[in-house]
Amino acid sequence: MNKISAALKPALNFVLPPRCVSCGVILGGENSFCVDCWSKMYFVAPPFCASCGLPLPFETDNTQQCGECLTNPPRHDGIKAVAAYCDISRQVILKLKHGGKIGLAELVARQLIRHLPENSSDCLAVPVPLHWSRLWARSFNQSALIAKSLAEMSSVSFAPDLLRRVRRTDLLRGKSQKERRKEVARAFEVSGKWEQRVSGRNILLIDDVYTTGATSDACVKCLKAAGAATVTIYCWARVLPDENIDHSRLETSLA
Ligand SMILES: [Zn+2]
Ligand SMILES: [Zn+2]
User: What is the pTM of this model?
Assistant: First the structure.
């Protein structure tokens, strides 16, 4: 924060007090949730699928995989998600993306830190890139903001320009899994200056929401082709099938 905005902050807070990201109730600090909304969010917790981190509805010895991973072994090396995608967790992304609340990237990064590997100093935080035309329209990439915050709070290195989106893709919403995969195929490439430097590296691929994995899979394919040792996906929210939700842990149903 520069000096001017720091000086203006108390005055702005007086005019616009910080509010809960989801319900809008007035809070003491910025970029957070009220206790009520926080307690209604479903945080992803073990037992997990050993490959993709999907919460499993039965106890495991940390070697079991979900049905999907058994049938189609994933290209990635794990998915670390903070919360299930629901009305409340969605607000973070909507406000970060369209509401200009870029401070929310810190909230997400703070939650992702506990999912980092023990020695993360050799890891590169690589955001899923936007096409330049979308970046131009929005002026920032929400995944890059999250990756930058994560790097600032840990020993991970920020590599915002490692992946490039070379093809603008249609919105994936409403498309089948097959159509999504076709749409994002060959949409990404490793930028020239990184081509010789990805080999053997551990990549943390940062995305805001993990839906079907079509976009991140296209990124993983590209990073592995360039020689990345591991690519682990880090995201704020993950769409979870109902059977992977432990309803006894849920105070209210996910909308
Ligand atoms: Zn609230
Ligand atoms: Zn799995």
Answer: 0.88
